[in-house]
Design brief:
25% of the residues lie in helices and 37% in strands. By secondary structure, the chain is of the alpha+beta class.
């Protein structure tokens, strides 16, 4: 997988120097607390997404719930069968939502029903994703809805390792700067903690109203944040 490394923008969210009147041993001060320098930094890298997750909706409306549900099932089945016929594995197709809701008139009286069926498809060949979406849309006709699209990287282990290494190096550089400014020596690493992330931000897909539907994955940024505590010599 081709990757592009973005310039690493370190984030020093917390930088603390707890050495107040430290002794030569760097163990503890008069208050009994351990001396140390704590830094936090973020390493970033970028890679090209290789997976597209698209949520396709099938929406039907009618006067009767059962008939509307049956019409929806027919169109949703046609959509799923088309995805399979185009080479998508069954394990990459899942029903992610189904609802039957009444519709109301101005007076609050039920006038009919609306059925929504959501199918989530995972496409591992982004180059064919536009073709797949167009075929699915044709199978469902005017009932099709594109609910959501996100790009991701299936195996980001190598990229995260690079980001992790950059984060640790940046944290060390920051700690060295703090130690130098404080006129103390930078000791051994006391602890390293990877700060939990909320997860990579999904990248929305962009669709134009023409055939074939263009899919451009662009690039995706991954980041790892670490907190490192150093002893003070």
């Amino acid at each position: 997988m081709t990757t592009r490394t973005l310039s690493m923008a370190a984030i020093a969210a917390t930088i603390a120097l707890t050495a107040a009147g430290c002794g030569n041993d760097g163990a503890s001060g008069a208050d009994g607390r351990a001396h140390g320098i704590t830094t936090q930094a973020t390493g970033k890298v970028a890679g090209t997404p290789d997976t597209l997750t698209v949520v396709l909706g099938v929406q039907t409306k009618g006067a009767e719930a059962n008939a509307t549900l049956a019409a929806n099932a027919e169109k949703a089945t046609a959509l799923i069968d088309t995805l399979k016929a185009k080479g998508l594995d069954a394990k990459d197709i899942a029903t992610s939502g189904l609802s039957v809701q009444p519709t109301y008139g101005p007076s609050g009286v039920i006038t009919g029903y609306q059925v929504d069926n959501q199918v989530t498809a995972t496409v591992h060949d982004i180059g064919r994703s536009g073709e797949l979406i167009d075929a699915a849309a044709a199978a469902a006709g005017d009932a099709v809805r594109v609910r959501d699209t996100t790009f991701s990287i299936a195996d980001d282990g190598e990229l995260r390792a690079q980001a992790r290494e950059r984060a640790v190096r940046q944290a060390q550089a920051q700690a060295g700067q703090i130690a130098s400014a404080a006129g103390v020596g930078l000791g051994a690493v006391r602890s390293i903690t990877e700060v939990p992330a909320s997860g990579p931000a999904p990248m929305p897909g962009v669709f134009a109203d023409r055939v074939p539907t263009p899919i451009q994955p662009g690039s995706q940024e991954l980041s790892v944040t670490v907190e490192v505590v150093y002893d003070v010599d």
